[in-house]
């Protein structure tokens, strides 16, 4: 993340991640994205928080980004693609163990 969030947002992010870890959810996740981000100037809203650089979002035909809301496509050819296929790429998520 090149454009760091302000201290208030950073604390909220820390609380979220710490909560997911303490509740035992974090180690069960293959991917986690937060598109409602403070910016996407350098791809901040496209990062896979579990394993940055792996299954980060690719923007197809430049969907619009709105701070704290995420992305909006045109319903025709604008979308985001994470290229994550749970049947092939999953480590923690599986057919009979998706809890």
Describe the protein in words.
The protein is α+β, with helices and mostly antiparallel strands. It has one domain. It is 20% helix and 12% strand. Strands 1-4 form a two-stranded antiparallel ribbon. The protein has a two-stranded antiparallel sheet with strand order 2-3. The relative contact order is 0.16. The model has no long low-confidence stretch (mean pLDDT 90).
Search tags:
2 helices; two-stranded antiparallel sheet; 20% helix; two-stranded antiparallel ribbon; flat; alpha+beta; 99 residues
Task: Indicate the topology.
Blueprint: H1 7-22, E1 58-60, E2 64-66, E3 70-72, E4 79-81, H2 86-89
Antiparallel strand pairs: 1-4, 2-3
* Oligomer type: single chain
Poorly predicted parts = none
Helix content: 10-25%
The first-to-last residue Cα distance is 29 Å
By secondary-structure content and strand pairing, the structural class works out as: alpha+beta
Numbering strands along the chain, what is their spatial order in the largest sheet? Answer: 1-4
Number of domains: 1
The overall average pLDDT, rounded, is 90
Main sheet, how many strands, which sense, barrel? 2 strands, antiparallel
From the spread of the alpha carbons, the general shape counts as flat
Count of alpha and pi helical runs: 2
Strand content: 5-15%
Number of strands: 4
**Which value, in Å, is the CA radius of gyration?**
15 Å
């Amino acid at each position: 993340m090149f454009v760091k969030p302000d201290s208030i947002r950073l604390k909220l992010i820390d609380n979220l991640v710490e909560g997911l870890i303490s509740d035992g959810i974090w180690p069960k996740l293959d991917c986690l994205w937060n598109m409602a981000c403070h910016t996407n100037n350098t791809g901040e809203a496209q990062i896979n928080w579990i394993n940055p650089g792996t299954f980060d979002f690719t923007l197809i035909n430049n969907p619009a980004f709105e701070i704290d809301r995420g992305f909006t496509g045109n319903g025709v050819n604008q979308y985001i693609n994470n290229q994550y296929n749970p049947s092939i790429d999953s480590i923690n998520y599986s057919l009979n163990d998706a809890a």
